[in-house]
Amino acid sequence: MRILMVAVEAGPYASAGGTGAVVGTLSRMLRRRGHDVRLVLPYYSTLIRPPAFPVESLSTLDVPVGRPPLPEVLAGLPEPLRAYLREVHEPPPRAFLYRVLPRSTPDEVPTYLIGGDPYHYFARVDGRQVPLYPPLEEIGVNAGRLYAFYARAVLEAVLLFAREGWTPDVIHCHDWPTALIPACLRAVPAPPPLLEGARVVLTIHNTSGIVYQGGWFGPEILTYAGLPRGLFDYGQVQHQGHLNFMKAGILFADAVNTVSEGYAREIQSDAEEAFLDLNGVRKTYRYSGGLDYVWSQYQIGLTGIRNGIGEDYDPRQIGQGPDWDLVESDWTTQYAPAEGRPLSEWAYSPDDPHLWKKKSALKRYLQERSNRLLQAHFQVEETVPLIAVRSRLVEQKGFDLIIRGLREWPGRPAQFLIVAWGEDEHARQYRQHLEDLAHEQPQRIALSRSWREIPEPLHYAGADMLLMPSLFEPCGLPHMMALRYGTIPIVRRTGGLADVVEDADPLAGRGNGFDFVAPDHREMLQAVERALRVYQSPPHWQALVRNALRARDRYGRDFSWETAVTLYLETVYR
After folding, report:
1. ω before 12 within 30° of 0 (cis)?
2. Which residues, other chains included, contact 336 with Cβ-Cβ below 8 Å and sequence gap of 6+?
3. Domains delineated in the chain
């Protein structure tokens, strides 16, 4: 099967969060299965450059944007005549098509890049000062025009591929920046004949509000993109008085999926939740971001396919891979109990008779490393519970709950090792609160913004628990990674978290974590308290850890990408 992946982020090139990791891994896993996969991204020339990513120029693309579409009465004219009329009407803007030079790795995905956007925004993206997604307050960039241009340029690139003999069976679009592509193929008077047989799939990674839906634009974007204005006037792509990219993608894609069964249920409902922010202001949100009516009104099916996690998140591979390479030298030279032996000797499996000894050693090292690198004052002691938090500093991840909970902590012995990152104003405010708490209570709280200081697999392997109180969670990856290492998740029961984490009943020997229902910091603290009580009973805790190491989701499926890929192939691609 020929599959074209279209996104604005994908590992290893550029990523703003979990979506990038998912797109990159899904593409590679499909290729490993023998499918002919290509990936298209914007050309972030500041990020995608030699020596890591050599790039070559392939072609110039005429992009049909910025002009009113030809009248529908001319749709039946021969294509050469229609092309001539378009050229006379107004010469089209141009995009530039590039290719990342292959490195000959077995599952490498041929990657193509679109440059030349009208704002030169893609070329300026650096992931820090200029983020992957233009913020709402960015006056100089109209994100609607930017991604309409990108959608049209992608289709011109696909037509070029088709003329050269590579016609996709599936065009797989990810999230709102690519969601005009289905409309450009299905809602125009004369769709390209070369692509008539292609199945168009839209994956929703997040649809919680207009920012994640591309839902704040005027109808003039349709004219710019060469789409009929009637799509807006008759309500098909309109939501709350604005053009909504996500709604357009949902209506015109051949298949729509989201990234967990739980999130699929939530975004088809009109459920509303409320929480208190750090200032005590009551805020409400809907899982669907207001688009829940679309599914029933237009009779559209939605499939939930939970993301997988990589094979390298495996306690049997401790000491192997680039993340562990960041730790190896420090472990052998600075951590005396290691006696110079390599980290790989502390790898473990669910049936390892030395499991507890190895996991305790990793925990003590993590405590000691936090003291050296983060100026924490943690007691280096295996009996003190170590709770991990690892996330972007965004409201969705429950930082209002976390910070309020840490302020009202009941005093039970526990250590919180927080790795959190983000550069916008909201993130800086959260970080300041966390820095203040870490400064006031260094024996209990340590904070890092660097994945190099506390690499991800060490964080999950060394901690006892993972706290993940998301307001909503389309899928989530950390809770599955933590379970792989036998680290117990404490989560809010929502979306993909509810699909995976089963609340523990230690007396019955059931469950693999702890959950709570309301987005409330006191309920969160009660769940943490329950976890800490079980932690004080080693037989029950060890049974829970073994459950975690063998965990599957509520449908009996493992966390591998192999499982997710099979579902894509058997459901939305066919």
Report:
1. yes
2. none
3. 2-263+302-308+566-572 (3.40.50.2000), 315-558 (3.40.50.2000)
Whole-number Å distance between alpha carbons of 126 and 122: 9
DSSP letters for 9-25: -BTTTB-SSHHHHHHHH
Within 10 angstroms of residue 497's Cβ, the number of other Cβ atoms is 27
Per-residue model confidence as pLDDT tens digits over 517-551: 999 999 999 999 999 999 999 999 999 999 999 99
Cβ distance 332 to 341 under 8 Å? Answer: yes
Q: Over range 412-439, report the average pLDDT.
A: 95
Bridge partner residues of 242 (DSSP): 239
**pLDDT the model gives residue 73:** 53
pLDDT digits (tens, 9 = 90+) for 461-493: 999 999 999 999 999 999 999 999 999 999 999
Using the 8-state DSSP alphabet, how is residue 505 labeled? B
In this predicted structure, the answer to whether residue 69 has a pLDDT above a threshold of 80 is no
- Amino acid at residue number 90: E
Q: Report whether 511 contacts 544 (CB < 8 A).
A: yes
pLDDT 10s digits, 369-388: 999 999 999 999 999 999 99
SS3 content of the chain, % helix, strand, coil (to 5): 40, 20, 40
Of all helices (H) and strands (E), which one includes residue 431? helix 425-440
Asked whether residue 84 carries a pLDDT value surpassing 90, the answer given is no
The total number of residues shown for the chain amounts to 574
- Cα angle: 19, vertex 13, 17; to 5 degrees: 25
Q: Is the CB of residue 455 less than 8 Å from the CB of residue 326?
A: yes
Q: What is the mean pLDDT of the chain?
A: 94
Q: Helix or strand or coil: residue 220?
A: helix
- The phi and psi torsions of 128 (rounded to 5 degrees) equal -125, -80
Is 466 in contact with 531 (CB distance < 8 Å)? no
